[in-house]
């Protein structure tokens, strides 16, 4: 009898990775943080007409707040914060980021003009830009390769269900405010319902930041150390140059995936930003009435998407390797097409089902893309690899999608209640472009695998 634990401490949790309890505790906090991040960035989408009425702004200005205002700092700072995640404490980066975007969300609830709300949205984008590169980099050091697909899927699931959670929470708070439930509360008393939603959700985010202070950062695994300076640290400029050089050298693996990801999120952000407004305007109901129906549907979709997506990705990786993941990505934009056509639904319930399905599909695209990039990028380039996805989907997705829908609504269709047709005109072409790009990436990886096999 050798006295060995039968599980061998889960094989030393796969060659030195943190023990499962610690790994899953940190992942759970990342999951909660991802929910909070999507809720805070998406609150404006649910209270569009209330904000328009009080601040006297147009659909196009709302589109700028949804997209450009949030996306400007999110995109510009995202790559830089990805480098920070590769070089400094990811735990502290996440804590500071959550505090910044939570306080900015509270500030948005106190904004008195378009300019003040624009500034608030800029700062929300700045804070949230820190989360994804730090989180994905942490997951790579918490879980071995064979378990990362499900771990990334679980993290992405937070963002996926957050669409539904955001609708449900905002709808609940809007209803409570309309009933006068916040009368007598400090700060909240007398505020418009949409302002109460912003402030309450911002305060909740600060609690998540405090929870992260109880965690300990895992050691980095597989970091490259051969190109460091005399002091043992590579200069920031040299790291950027080396990282971009690597991605360009391996562009057949990266560029088509980045462009496809951006195209997919152009359609998705445009749809997400205006779904509630589309349903409200088409069927003559308020956001508080839409929320109990659309919110739970989106949560279920968001739960199923990353679970199914993570399982499929792990099966693909075990059978064919990470290079086969783009094959899955080719299919998903076609699955998303019905959600872009929700305006054609004859009933409120069917429209909500079609809209809600997009949450799960988006989670599958995110889990597959991030798992692919996480595997293909060297360890000390993962943060930047992930932040480039943030740059691409923000510049071409978050910044353009909502405002393109708004511009078509105002200047082409000319009637607010036709916003659903604007969503269709933006999302359908975007999804077809995404499928084409992912197909190019799949073809490039297949060619590369063939060459390696015959070399």
CATH fold topology: Growth Hormone, Chain: A
Q: In CATH, what is the class?
A: Mainly Alpha
In the CATH hierarchy, the architecture is Up-down Bundle
Radius of gyration: 22 Å
Strand content: under 5%
Q: What structural category do the secondary elements indicate?
A: mainly alpha
Looking at CATH, the homologous superfamily is MFS general substrate transporter like domains
| Element string (H = helix, E = strand) | HHHHHHHHHHHHHHHHH
Care to count the β-strands?
Answer: 0
Distance from first to last alpha carbon: 48 Å
Mean pLDDT: 84
Uncertain regions spanning at least 5 consecutive residues: 6-13, 224-232, 450-454
Indicate the percent of residues in helices: over 70%
Q: Note the main sheet.
A: none
Describe this structure in words.
The structure is a single chain. The termini are far apart. This protein is an all-alpha fold. The protein is built from 17 helices and no strands. It has one domain (19-213, 243-454): Growth Hormone, Chain: A (Up-down Bundle).
């Amino acid at each position: 009898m050798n006295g060995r634990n039968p599980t061998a401490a889960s094989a030393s949790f796969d060659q030195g990775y943190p023990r499962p309890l610690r790994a899953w505790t940190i992942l759970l906090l990342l999951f909660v943080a991802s929910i909070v991040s999507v809720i805070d960035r998406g609150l404006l989408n649910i209270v569009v007409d209330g904000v328009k009425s009080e601040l006297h702004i147009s659909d196009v200005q709302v589109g700028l707040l949804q997209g450009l205002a949030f996306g400007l700092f999110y995109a510009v700072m995202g790559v830089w914060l990805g480098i920070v995640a590769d070089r400094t404490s990811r735990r502290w980066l996440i804590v500071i980021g959550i505090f910044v975007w939570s306080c900015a969300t509270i500030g948005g609830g106190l904004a008195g003009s378009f300019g003040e709300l624009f500034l608030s949205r800029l700062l929300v984008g700045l804070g949230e830009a820190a989360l994804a590169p730090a989180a994905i980099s942490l997951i790579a050091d918490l879980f071995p390769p064979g378990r990362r697909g499900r771990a990334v899927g679980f993290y992405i699931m937070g963002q996926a269900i957050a669409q539904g959670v955001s609708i449900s929470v905002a709808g609940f708070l809007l209803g409570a405010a309309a009933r006068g439930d916040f009368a007598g509360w400090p700060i909240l008393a007398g505020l418009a319902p949409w302002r109460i939603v912003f402030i309450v959700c911002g305060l909740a985010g600060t609690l998540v930041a405090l929870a992260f202070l109880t965690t300990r950062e895992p050691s980095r695994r597989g970091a490259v150390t051969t190109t460091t300076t005399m002091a043992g640290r590579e200069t920031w400029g040299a790291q950027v140059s080396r990282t971009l050089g690597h991605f360009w050298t391996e562009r057949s693996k990266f560029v088509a995936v980045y462009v496809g990801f951006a195209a997919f999120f152009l359609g998705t952000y445009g749809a997400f930003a205006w779904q509630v407004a589309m349903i409200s305007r088409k069927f003559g109901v308020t956001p508080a009435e839409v929320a109990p129906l659309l919110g739970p549907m989106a949560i279920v979709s968001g739960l199923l998407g990353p679970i199914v997506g993570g399982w499929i990705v792990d099966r693909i990786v075990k059978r064919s390797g990470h290079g086969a993941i783009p094959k899955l990505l080719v299919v998903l934009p076609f699955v998303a097409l019905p959600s872009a056509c929700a305006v054609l639904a004859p009933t409120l319930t069917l429209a909500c089902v079609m809209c809600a399905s997009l949450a799960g599909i988006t989670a599958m695209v995110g889990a597959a893309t991030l798992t692919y990039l996480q595997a293909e990028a060297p360890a000390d380039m993962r943060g930047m690899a992930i932040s480039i996805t943030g740059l691409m989907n923000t510049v071409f997705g978050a910044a353009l999608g909502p405002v393109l829908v708004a511009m078509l609504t105002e200047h082409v269709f000319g009637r607010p209640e036709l916003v659903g047709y604007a969503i269709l005109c933006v999302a359908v072409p975007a999804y077809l472009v995404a499928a084409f790009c992912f197909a190019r990436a799949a073809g490039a990886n297949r060619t590369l695998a063939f060459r390696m096999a015959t070399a």
